[in-house]
Write a structure and sequence with these properties.
With 132 residues, the chain is an alpha+beta fold. It has one domain: Nuclear Transport Factor 2, Chain: A (Roll), CATH 3.10.450.50. A 6-stranded mixed β-sheet has the order 2-1-6-5-4-3, sandwiched between helices. Strand 5 and strand 6 form a beta hairpin. The chain is globular, with a radius of gyration of 14 Å. The chain starts with a helix and ends in a 5-residue tail after the last helix.
Amino acid sequence: MSQENVEVVRVFMEHTNRTGGEPLWELLDPDIEWIVDPTGLLAGTYRGHEGVREFFERLRESFDETHVEIDELIDAGGSVVLLCRIRNRGRSSGMTVEQPTGWVSEVRDGRIVRSRVYFRAAEALEAVGLSE
C-alpha cells in the first residue's frame, strides 16, 4: 500500500505541474485538510475541495508560474514525504524565486486526506519521525 501512496502523490504533483496549477480532484479527499506553513505567503489551513480551490486561486493571483520540482518521494507508512523545490514567478514583478520545501501528505484509500507544506525539509522529515 505504501508504494501506492507514493504514486498517488507523484501523479498529483505531476498533473498539477502539467496543468499549470489545476489539481487532480479525484486524488483529493472531499474533506482534505491542506495546510501551508505559517511562514509562507499563503499560510493557513484550507479545508475541503473548496478550500483547496481557494488556495490555488490565491496562488494564481500572486504568481503567473508555479512549478514543483520533485527531488525525492519518501514512503513513510500512511504518509508520503515529498522533498522538492517550488519555483514561483511573481505576477507583477516577473521575478523568479525557488524555495526548497518539504511536503507531507497523508493518503488513505488512494486519496490525499491531509497535506502540509513545510518550508524546511527537516521539519517535514521530523513530522513523520525521520531525519535528514
